[in-house]
Amino acid sequence: MNGNRIVCDTNVLIHLLGKNDVVRNFLRGKEISLSVITELELYAKQNLTEREEKIIDTMIDCCFVIELTQPIKQIVKEIRKTHKIKLPDAIIAASAIYYDIPFITFDSDFKNIDELELVLMKN
Question: Please, what are the domains in the chain?
Fold first, then answer.
């Protein structure tokens, strides 16, 4: 694994918010990055309370948010040419690939992207 840096998928951060001890222990001491897509997905929960929104705000403030740049868009195009993957997932994966940071997820759909250094968590 590439140092203490990690890019988190949305599902990992949802597990963290749900107080998943395995996720919390794995992420402890790591520099956490997330795609702007993940940031937006975290706020997409139906009936998000003000308290939940503040918790998400605090968590995101502790992370590096990767914006959608032209180089990342190019990687997304390449991923979509060769893999059946949803656009938001392609953007998240491309963000990790561009910065050469391992990517942690519970979603096995990412395992066929060879360029991605994948950390696949199990429920």
Answer: 5-120 (3.40.50.1010)
